[in-house]
Amino acid sequence: MASDDTVLRSDPLADPIMEIGFGVFKASLVCQAIELGIFDKIEVLNKKVTAVGFANNYGYKPEVTERILDALVCYGLLNKSNSQDEPEYSNSKTVQKYLLKSDQPCLNSTLLGIRLLSQFVDKLDTVIKQGSNNTVYERLLDGSEDGRDFTNSKLERQEIKTDQNQNPVAERKKTNKTDSSAHSFMVQMDSLLRPAVHAITVAFDVAGHKTLLDLGGNSGYLAFEFIKTYPQLKAIVLDRPHTIQLAKKYQPAHTKSKVEFIEGDFFDNKKFPEVDLMMLSHIIHNWDEDKLDILLTKTYQSLKPGGTLLVAEKLLNEDKIGPEITILLDVTMTTVCNGRERTLSEYQKLLGRYGFQNIEGKRIAGVNYFDVIIARKPDI
Ligand SMILES: C[S@@+](CC[C@H](N)C(=O)[O-])C[C@H]1O[C@@H](n2cnc3c(N)ncnc32)[C@H](O)[C@@H]1O
């Protein structure tokens, strides 16, 4: 044993590499726990279980079960009682709010979806040589990527196919897109929003506005939160026809008098409805400059003079070497589409080109995928 005043330490230069490696282990372990349904099973078994009782109930090996449960305690996902003899495990508050199956979007689909997306990042070696393309994103949107379900507890890693140029492509299913895979994409998007959804609505006070148009508003989850925060507001959610049909099917009854769903296309030559408040949440980062030119021209034209545009995207630091989550999103964008993340000054430049003024940004603290940028159309 070292004497008390000796501090033993491994080489700090190795720390960043070791931490990155452990992050992969940690994510695999938690994804496996989700796929095994451990958290829901604990909840079903009266919320408190011993390792042996839990293992016996599900036909698991007790000694392995105990080690997995202890690892989940170490990650703050389970609590463990102090009893030395037969400690009991229960779900932490984090798990109860975000990892159990419920009618709210849960983060299971975020974690499993990140694992799916990381397979596209595994193809960076071809993307770095060939450049990115939109095929993967369009197929993911379509629900025609190879049928794996973002929310499915049996999500498995599979090899990603490449096209003749060695670009990664998601396989198109032989059958038409199904409601279930398109619905999975919808659930995945909502799960990304959930931890930050309220912060997005209050980042800038939009109480003076009458009608919100959420472009690419998907399930309507963000629009529902806006009408809750601003009771005077009505909302229109515009999205692709198949998404709108699905969103209508799942629309909560209490939102029906205030949120209307309409079919539309960012890139056709039809105008958007004229409103005084517009939202683009996780839309700008998906498209190249040519597509953005069509979308932002239409957006500006449809906004009433004096109106407001809100953009929810994660901001890059001005030096572009952080924050880490934005960097990861930016790399993901390059592997699945022609999009990218931007700094606030890049958003100011981009939106300023279309006539927007007074462009400001607010960061949302915590671990999440969103910051908020506000831009105004001059009152003439
Ligand atoms: C990345 S998701 C973002 C969804 C939502 N705004 C959010 O923040 O979670 C992109 C959304 O844009 C929609 N979308 C993609 N291309 C579109 C197009 N050409 N016209 C209208 N909506 C489109 C998709 O269906 C999807 O709902």
UniProtKB/TrEMBL annotation:
Its EC number is 2.1.1.4. One of its GO terms (molecular function) is protein dimerization activity. The active site is at H285 (proton acceptor). Gene3D superfamilies: Vaccinia Virus protein VP39, Winged helix-like DNA-binding domain superfamily/Winged helix DNA-binding domain. Residues 22-98 form the O-methyltransferase dimerisation domain. It is an enzyme of class 2 (transferase). InterPro entries: COMT-like, COMT_C, COMT_dimerisation, SAM-dependent_MTases_sf, WH-like_DNA-bd_sf, WH_DNA-bd_sf. The keyword Transferase applies. One of its GO terms (biological process) is methylation. Residues 160-181 are annotated as: Disordered. Catalyzes the transfer of a methyl group onto N-acetylserotonin, producing melatonin (N-acetyl-5-methoxytryptamine). This is Acetylserotonin O-methyltransferase.
